[in-house]
Amino acid sequence: MPPGSFAPTKAVAVAVGPAIVLLALLAVSDLMPAAAACAIAGVLIGCALVARQGLDRRNKPLAAPAPAPPEAPPQPLLDHLPDPVILVNRGREITAVNRMAREIVGVGEVGRDLALSMRHPRVLAAVEAVMTGASTVSEEITLAAPTPRTFTLHAARLDGAGAHSQAAAAAAAVLVLRDETRAKRAEQTRADFVANASHELRSPLSALIGFIETLLGPASDDAHARERFLGLMRAEAMRMARLVDDLMSLSRVEINEHVPPKDAVAIGAILQSVADTLSVRAEDKGMTIALDIDANLPFVLGDGDQLTQVFHNLVDNAVKYARTGTVVRLAAKRTERGVGGGQGVSVAVIDAGDGIAAIHLPRLTERFYRADAGRSRRLGGTGLGLAIVKHIVNRHRGTLSIESKRGVGSTFTVVLPAAPSVGSTSQ
């Protein structure tokens, strides 16, 4: 018996004992029938025993309650976190995701197996590791869609949700993905810039050194040669300046390629501006730039400056390589089967040039790839224009297609997603 229960039990015995003695005296003195006295005494003793049991139960220490399974954090809290966060249970089913996980990673359906939403072996291996004993796991992963992005994955087991948890549906592990894409691309861009710049700048620098040595030596007193060499040196220096500008432009585009633009842009106004800018150059070759823009063309999601660069590069190439006296057409129309199956805008730049052999088409958007290297250099090309176009279109979640036929011409078509419910314009 617990020490604290002795005093109440003694008090009950003291209260019942005298009553039983009194009943015995009454029965002996024939003042009460013996049967009645025994019945009353039995009732009193029973009550005493019940009272004692109640006191024993009241003084018995209470058992500690079973620990409650960990609860998922409130959804508003998850949605305010800057990184994608995913919670899964012991069955690897998603129990909660935040807004960044839905937007960046595309994981959004609660109750679905994680393997159906993120088919990445390192992600699944990290979850398995924390479920079977590891407290935390960190991995670097690359997710391919819609554009490649690099993340540092942190997986951790939630305390109280191990293998012996009573709630199978409770969150057992948390995944946090830290986006490292910008840092990785900046690092790769620096390496690519050094490699590309050293390769492409070697030729003009060698030419400049040769011209300078000639001017300092045999042609030092030759005014005609000096004038000719200075013109060549200026052309090579301008070529290097264009090359550096294009390399820097490509680097900026690549670093931000994983972040899609969200502004609504009037594509018709951009095409009109590009046509006006390049019309003088076209007139010098006896060419014209014709616009064919559908009425009520929807806005597109985009960056106005980058889209201007896309169509400037495409129209500039058409003017450079098309035959003298021909027409360069810019045709823009609404398309019901745009990027991702939604509504979009298609813009085609159509020239009447010599065309491009089919063998070159798959590689035209590679940096420094030229179908006709000599002609490209003579016309001031750097070999980076279409690479810049490709990366800008990728950032806009659009598509670029190229069709060409020798002796007929080429068509470069850009399809961009339409902005949702912004309106329409042809200007």
Describe this structure in words.
The protein is an alpha+beta fold and 427 residues long. It has 4 domains: 3-59; 75-179, PAS domain (Beta-Lactamase); 181-259, Orthogonal Bundle (Helix Hairpins), CATH 1.10.287; 260-427, 2-Layer Sandwich (Heat Shock Protein 90). It is 46% helix and 18% strand. It is built from 12 helices and 12 strands. The chain has a 5-stranded antiparallel β-sheet, sandwiched between helices. Strands 7-9-10-12-11 form a 5-stranded mixed β-sheet, with helices on one face. It has a two-stranded antiparallel sheet with strand order 6-8. Strand 9 (327-335) and strand 10 (344-350) form a beta hairpin. Helix 1 (6-28) packs antiparallel against helix 2. It is elongated, with a radius of gyration of 41 Å. The chain starts with 5 loop residues before the first helix and ends in a 10-residue tail after the last strand. Residues 3-8 and 161-168 have low confidence and may be disordered.
Keywords:
single chain; 18% strand; 12 helices; five-stranded mixed sheet; alpha+beta; 4 domains; 12 strands; Beta-Lactamase; Helix Hairpins
Q: How many distinct domains?
A: 4
Terminal CA distance reads 94 Å
Second-tier CATH architecture of the largest domain:
2-Layer Sandwich
| Overall morphology | elongated
Individual helix count: 12
Give, in order, the helices and strands: HHHEEHHHEEEHHEHEEHEEHHEE
Radius of gyration: 41 Å
| Percent range of helical residues | 40-55%
The proportion of strand residues reads 15-25%
Structure classification: alpha+beta
Average residue-wise pLDDT: 78
Major β-sheet strand ordering? 2-1-5-4-3
